[in-house]
Structures are given as C-alpha cells and as structure tokens.
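Usage example:
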Amino acid sequence: MSAGLEQLAERARSAAQTIATAPSGARDEALLAAADLLETRTGPLLAANAADLERASGEGLGTAALDRLRLDAGRIAAMAAGLRAVAALLDPVGEVVGGWSRPNGLRVERIRVPLGVVGVIYENRPNVTSDAAALCLKSGNVAFLRGSASALRSNVAIVVALRDGLSKAGLPQDGVLLVEDTGHDTALEFMRLRGTIDCLVPRGGRELIERMIEHATVPYVLDGDGNCHLYVDRSADLDMARDIVVNAKTQRPGVCNAAESLLVHRDVAAEFLPIAARALEGVELRGDAATRAILPGILEATEEDYATEFLALTLSVAVVEDLDAAIAHIRRFGSGHSEAIVTRDLASADRFVREVDAAAVVVNASTRFVDGSELGLGAEVGISTQKLHARGPMGLRELTCVKWVVRGEGQIRQ
Amino acid sequence: MSAGLEQLAERARSAAQTIATAPSGARDEALLAAADLLETRTGPLLAANAADLERASGEGLGTAALDRLRLDAGRIAAMAAGLRAVAALLDPVGEVVGGWSRPNGLRVERIRVPLGVVGVIYENRPNVTSDAAALCLKSGNVAFLRGSASALRSNVAIVVALRDGLSKAGLPQDGVLLVEDTGHDTALEFMRLRGTIDCLVPRGGRELIERMIEHATVPYVLDGDGNCHLYVDRSADLDMARDIVVNAKTQRPGVCNAAESLLVHRDVAAEFLPIAARALEGVELRGDAATRAILPGILEATEEDYATEFLALTLSVAVVEDLDAAIAHIRRFGSGHSEAIVTRDLASADRFVREVDAAAVVVNASTRFVDGSELGLGAEVGISTQKLHARGPMGLRELTCVKWVVRGEGQIRQ
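Running the assembly step on the lines above writes:
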C-alpha cells in the first residue's frame, strides 16, 4: 500500500476513538463552525473551484460534468445550510434500541454507537464532500473521503473548513480526512482498507459498483440502480394513475427513484394508455405489441428496454394480463429499488406490498417519494438496494451499529 | 460455473418467492414434521452417519473431528428438539419495525421481511444442517447449505427429512437445498452466487473467513474470533472477580466467548493475582513482568500471546496502570467480540461501556453470557464480530431485512 494512504488510515483510526465518544454538542458545534467558515471563505473557495474548472475544461470534461463541478456563492451557501440542517437533526448515537432483563438478573441493553470510520468514494460534485462529512460527524464517525481528481482543489478547500470547524469545537481535525492521491490504484487500495474502514459508501456509477463487488474487502453499502415500475391495476383511479405516472417519470427523470417502466392491466389499457400518452407528451414511449395496438405510433420495446434504467424522458410500457403478470414482470426486470401500484382494490394493494421484493413498495403515490427527506429521515446518505445492514433510504441511523451492554452483579454461567 | 450449482441456484431463487410469503403456520408445520421424520428415521440416519464415519476414519480424520461428525440417538433427538424449539419462537416476518405519517398524508411503514436465500457454509457437524435450515425457514428464507465432504451422507439424510417436512406442509421442497458437490472450487463459486444468495453465513475457521473476505461477492455476515478480556478494576469485589474469571476461562474454554486474557489494575494485583492463580488451577498462565513478579512460576507472555484466542486452558495476564491502560490494551489486542470489567465504581463501569469498541461489553458478569440463548434471542445463527447488519449474537431477526411500505391517496411530488 502507498505510504501516504497507510498514514492517513492510521490517523483515521486514531481520530475515530475521540470522535465516537465526543458529546453530540461538540460534534454539532464543529458542523456549525464549518458552515460559518465555508461562507466566510467563499472567495478562496471559488478561486480553488475556478482552478479545478479550468483544468477540467482543458481536459475536455463535458458540460454536464462541468456543471456538477461548478460552485457559486449560492451553492456554497447551500452547503453551509446543509451542515446546519444536519447539526439540527437528532443524534442517533446513544439511542437505546431495546433492552430487557434475564431470569438470572442480567440486564441487557442494545445501544446505538458509531461505526467508526466511514469511507466515501464519490465523483466530481464538491458538495458531496461537505454533505458526507456532515452525516459522518453527526453520527459520530470519522469521514474518510476520496473524491475525484477533477474536484481536488475544491475538495481540499472544503475539507480544510471542516477540519478547522473540528478544531474550533475542540475535536481532532482528523475527524475529516481527504485522500488527495486520486489515482486508480489508490481507489483500489482504499476499498481494501480492512481494519480501518468500518463501512464504505460508494457514490458512483456502475463501473465503481462492479469494482467494489469484485475487489473491496471492507464492508460496504451499495446504492444501486433504480429500474422502478408503476403498475396501473384494473381497479385504478385512472386520473390518479395519470398524475402519478407523469410525476414519477418527468418530475426529475435523471434520478434513481424516477419511474422507468409502466405496466397496465389489460382491462384498462385501451382507456388508460391514450390518456397517459397525451399527459406524457415529450416522453418517448416504447411498448410491447399490445401497447402498440393501442398506441400505434410508438417504438417497439425490446427486452433490453425493460431492463434499462433510462434516467431520461423515456418510458417502457407493457400491457399485463393481471396482477400476477405485473408482479412477475417486476420480479424479472426490477432492480429492487422502488415499485408502485395504483389501485382501488384492497386485495391487490396487499398482494403487491407482500409479493414485490423491493426496498420500497408504494401504493397510490409517486415513486419519487422514496427518498430520505421525503420519508422523514431528515438527511440521507443514499438509497440502498442491498438487503444487508440498510435497505432503501439511508439516514443517520444507517451510519451506526449496535453494541450489546450486559450488566450483572457477579453472575456466572452454569 | 458448474451446471449443477447453477441449477441449484435457480431452484433456490424460485423457491424463495413461495417460502418468503408462506404463512408462518406452514413454515412451523414443516419444521415440526421434519422433527418427527428425523426421529422416525433414526435407523437410516445412523447408517448414513456410520458410512461417513467409516470413510472419514479411513482418511485419517482426527478424534475430535470424528466426534463432531458422530451422530447417535441422543444427538438425533436433540436435532429434532432444536427444530421444535425454533418452530416455537416468535415469527420475525411481518414485524412492523416503525411507522409514521408525513405532512402530505403519506403513511410510511417499515416491515420486517425475509432476506430471500440464505447460504451457509459449514464444517463437519451434521446438526448444523438442521439448525441452520430451521433458522432460515423460520425467518422465511430458503436455506442453501454447503457442508463438508466428510459429513455428506449424514447431511443428505437430514436434508431429505427437512424437504419431506416441507412437502407435508404444502411448501416447496427446495426451501432447503444442499450442495452435494463438496469440491473446493464449488465453495468458491458458491460464495460468488451474487443475485442468488442474499446473505452468506460462513461457519468455519480463519481460512474460510479469509477466503470469504478475498473472494466472496455475495453479502455476508462474519462470525469472527473472540479474543475476549476480563479487566479487574481497582475497586473490584475480588471474590466476584475470581468467580467470574474462573467461569469465563474454564466453563467451556473452546468457545468464542471464553476469556483469553486477564487484565488486573496494579493496585489490586498483589492481592488478586495469587487468589486468581489458585482458583485457576489447571490453567496455564502467561504473564508480563509485573505479573511474574507476583506469580514468579508462570511463563512469560509474548505480544503474540496477547493477540491469541487460545480456545484452551491458557490465559494471558497483564497488570495495567489504570482503566485507560486496560482500555488501550483491549483496543490493541481485542477482536471486537466480548469484553468484561469487574468493578464497584460507577464511573469506571460507564467509561468501560462507552469506550470499549466491541460487539458486547459486560459489567460484573461472565463473558460466557454473550450468546443468543443466554441473552434471550431463543436461537442464534452465530455471533457477528462485524459491524454492518448484525453485531454480536444473531437471532432470527438478523436473517431478515426491512421493506419500506408507502401508502397514499394519489400524492405526487412537488
């Protein structure tokens, strides 16, 4: 391993002991101080970001990527507001998750504690640096960050503000650490820092996820694809179904909880599909034969279309025989993220909720609600599509684990 | 991948849909029927086991391993009793873990659901076959089992009883599947069945754990080493400390929650160590210089001794300066399993509980209580020393995950 990374890892482990047991007041104070520093250092921050932008532009980074990389005074204020919002949340650390007494008098408690060192690998949005650090510190963890090369100067400037915030609160600066070596090999070493990183959260595309699955030796939580379906049942209120499909597809098409596929019960297909097509003007529909018999102008959907998370104004459509066929289709093509049904029938709703295996099942509402803040978590680390540890929107609690505390008066085992 | 394993994987996925949504009554019925079948088939089971024993003995398997492999009528009755005990536990599936309403009227619930397919890799104790299958089925999961070559005939016979039990309850036989190809390559393929195995629980030694960390692509929960410490504080009741150290070390030395290291505050070392040494007669003590100044006859402890889980009647001993030094020693050498303090001082107890980072911290009781049944979980899958998903004793709940259910009346996101 590179000496630099090994040294950072040691500093992370060392700081974790103090951060984990620091009172929440000090951790909040650090976040609030960092928020102020980000705002008072807007000028230098913008200068660092301008240098990143210039270099990235020279290296041919695309327009969308440059936009994600770009900071302005508004975005810096939003980062500061994000730090303050996280500071205002309830501290997850110390929550007594459960407890009971045993017949021999032992008192058992399960108490929420920080994980220790949380690693985050992410791409070129500098605000992820402050968001991720805030969530980690709020939950008592060291934030061990590895951003992209293109955002390095911006990230360094943001991390310095966070570290200075920690100092002001009397906490070790190493509560936030940035890996400044952005080489490919270092990323690989980073995901193999077993014994240092207690949980790694990769925030990136499919290539990163696949590298994680193949090479990571540290525990991780994956934020995977969202190939989300909306099923319009025979008994659906079709006006409601129209509004929901428009919202789920078009309100923000580039995100993981947007709908990618519309399934319509055959008994209402002839009535609903023309309504939906009109309301979805500007969305490219791709349908099966039964859909195209009703909407003859649209493209044919291939198997691959049904398996695709478009993240764009494209929607695959299929007419299904019944609820069972809808569930079978979702089982085959869904990615286990968010699946919705529109129905007035109680039994259909109950069966859909029970039989669809996804992080979130939604009845008579838009898939777009499957999100940490919309569901009431305050802030989110991501949306897990895995089943272990965390599933669905991940809030602060998902950055903690539980310690068993057993208290006795000298009990020994017989 | 071998065609046989691929076919088994497909059968596991297919059965998982039915098992996950089967009512708990049917799953319990299957366990009870299997318990009866194990007992009525005691003769053929013993014959299968005798064939395993004969072959293993011919291949030079050691006495202890042969004993673990051996079945007799009592052990078969114990397996049946285990199935009935698990059937009698509360079903974890369907538990509403939490729920609330959102300002827009959305109703949010988090509901406990099965993981799907749980894989278990284990060694040559045939009772693990029925224990693991019982825990998986009780929690609504398919049990996908891979035992050792030496126990193959016994495992097949037990699995047939479990599968027949499933049939009797009207459930798919493939709720329990055994990988009969016990080759090394198949084990590797098994731990890479991503998309089939939702959680893999390896029950084996360090070599298996290391192979898992390096090669597994499926999610897993590790049951790691237990290098457990007992710290005798300055204020300890020394009679209590003596009884606890004897129990923690000798009541069952070969298990992970047995104590491996004794730390004694220097102020009580001269009084306590001779008491402890007398009470621990038959235990080999290995001490640091301060310990040997008090107990001159004992061996010197090396760094490696302090890092070793002896699993035998051997105990490393160190005299520590104070509570801080005890915590630092545990931080350095502990494996994050179970750590105990004996003290009468409230502040010492509180600091030990807060600052020691382990799955379980124990105050004034034996480490031997850190066990699923002793802590009230009914049955346990193992004791996790990892922090993600499950930490400490794992009961049925740790074989489940949580699904978000969101119900509305047509809400769309603004």
